[in-house]
Amino acid sequence: MRDKSYKILISIFCLLFLIDAFCVLTGYIKPIDLAVYNFLRSFSNKFVDTYFVVLTYMGNWQMIALVLICMHLILKPKDQISMDTVALLSICSNYVIKHIVCRPRPDVLRLVKIGGYSFPSGHSMIAITLYGFLFTLVTCKIKKKWLRLLIQILLIYLIFNICISRIYVGVHYASDVFGGFILGFAELLLVLYCRKKYFGGDSNVQSLNK
């Protein structure tokens, strides 16, 4: 991807985030939030409840820490730096924005216990930034097509199911998840742009599975 394309995409996602934040602050999007929650909860049963509770834990700090530690054992220094940067940027920006907006969490049935503010969704941000970054590494470094495709599908599945789970378990509105996802995407693109500019991308990197 060209440098200009990175800049355009980052600008677009940041603009979308600001629009979403405006809708949240004004309350315009609340009916849509409730409609999405009610739709997802219409599929409620014991199996689905358990499924989304398990999936939502894949974005908890314990799992994120485990992923970071495991990746540090197999990645090269420049990849470790990029991975740590995108994760730290996601966590810090989420904390700051939550305490600026101060949106209360949904007053609905919650399947997991959690405190703090609601907008934007931290799980959605870390899912797209960290697992999205791993997706780019897999794309660049794994040469076996079947293995690369399998891991890519699993990562995409994980990202989107973590996002959906936050609405289903009752701890976020859909607009929280959307805001977290698009802001996280902008941060991921920013880190990838800086990585390409200062580290030279992955054109000469050997595959992980050699």
Shape: globular
Range of strand content: under 5%
Query: Mind telling me the C-alpha Rg?
Result: 18 Å
What class, by secondary structure content? Answer: mainly alpha
Compute the separation of the termini in Å.
26 Å
- The total of beta strands comes to 0
Poorly predicted ranges (pLDDT <50, ≥5 residues)? 203-210
Mean pLDDT: 89
The number of helical runs is 8
Helicity level, as a percent range? over 70%
As for the number of domains, it is 1
Question: What is the N-to-C order of secondary-structure elements (H for helix, E for strand)?
Answer: HHHHHHHH
The profile of the biggest β sheet is: none
Would you kindly provide a written description of the structure presented here, covering whatever features stand out?
The chain has 210 residues and is mostly helical. It has one domain. 74% of the residues lie in helices and 0% in strands. It is built from eight helices and no strands. The chain has helices spanning 3-26, 30-41, 46-56, 61-74, 77-101, 122-141, 145-168, 174-199. α6 runs parallel beside α8 (174-199). The radius of gyration is 18 Å and the shape is globular. The two termini are 26 Å apart. Mean pLDDT is 89; it is low at 203-210.
